[in-house]
Amino acid sequence: MTKNQISQRSLLIWRYLQTLVFIFGLFILFNLIFFQKLGLTLFWNILIPVAPALLVIAVGVWRNVCPLGSLSLLPRHSGLSKRKRLTVEQSGALSLIAVIALLILAPLRHVLFDISGIATALLIMIVGVIAVITGFYFEWKSAWCSGLCPIYPVEKLYGMSNRFSIPNVHCDQCYRCVTPCPDTTPGYTPFTAANTTYHEIAGSIMVGGFPGFVWGWFQVPTMKEKLGLEQLLLVYNMPILGLVSTLLLFLILKRFFPTGKLVSIFAASAVSCYYWFKLPSWFGYGVFPGDGMLIDLSGILPEWSLTLLVCTTTLFFFWWIVFNKQNRNSWEIKPTYANEQ
């Protein structure tokens, strides 16, 4: 067995994990429809907040077990995919669409998805259908996992300092569906595949604009009023203002400093900003009382303990992404090329 191969025992364990995660996803979907409060808590206040840390520490784990990723690859594993190949230009366009989708959908949480379990369930099902359709037409991970998926831009940003190369349990062989492959290219960043204007724009928005976007997102409360133009303007105002501010800063600094180091700093800033606001909100110390709260410990925990917690997570992320010795590991281990028989 070569280093690129995976043992049957290891593969079986990963299949169990994929199945468990998929069942958990169905459980969340069920609750979003029939027990909306529980479903919203499980999805938006537990699953989603854990994801950024996982992407920073071991993005390959998520790539292996993501339920939507598994769905998109079902046609290929079943021999039903038409296996069409995307051009570099098409891949770049999909990357930019994924970034735009992320920036459009995230603010809608404040007026729709954080409030309505049905709306969130419909979103998940629609995205799932798109994932399957792209898998039916295009080769392996090219169109969804490494293209249209709205989480993919965040994977590229947060997973750049990956230190754990794990087996690729989806790809038995490498069919060169994406070049360069994000799973197996060491030190992959939003600018690694900047072969087109689409790639360059998408990378600049994510690296430069995402820290400000995250900050702006947390400056908007959940709104229970009827969805209208006024509410839409409010939920997009601060995130877009924040995005434009840090994007301009990035573009200015890029003229004077190495891009690689700036990417690391802005990535660490984005994920640190997320937990700076998210962790206090879990325990009743959020900017807007009640938003994103799991348990109210405001009368038990001293406020300084939350400050210590968010300072610790910020230091960790900057150490892991910026100051620690840069590790050039890939997200996953490259399987043998398909023509190497």
Can you describe what's shown?
The model has no long low-confidence stretch (mean pLDDT 91). By secondary structure, the chain is an all-alpha fold. The longest helix is centred in the N-terminal third of the chain and has 30 residues, at 36-65. The chain has helices spanning 8-34, 36-65, 67-77, 88-113, 117-137, 144-148, 152-158, 197-217, 229-253, 259-282, 303-323, and strands spanning 166-167, 332-333. It contains eleven helices and two strands, in the order αααααααβααααβ. The protein is globular, with a radius of gyration of 20 Å. The two termini are 14 Å apart. It has one domain (8-333). Helix 8 (197-217) runs parallel beside helix 10 (259-282).
Number of helices: 11
The separation of the N and C termini measures 14 Å
Helix and strand run = HHHHHHHEHHHHE
Rg, Å, rounded = 20 Å
Helix/strand class: mainly alpha
Ranges where pLDDT stays below 50 over 5 or more residues in a row are none
Number of strands: 2
Number of domains: 1
Q: Could you give the order of strands across the largest sheet?
A: 1-2
Helix content: 55-70%
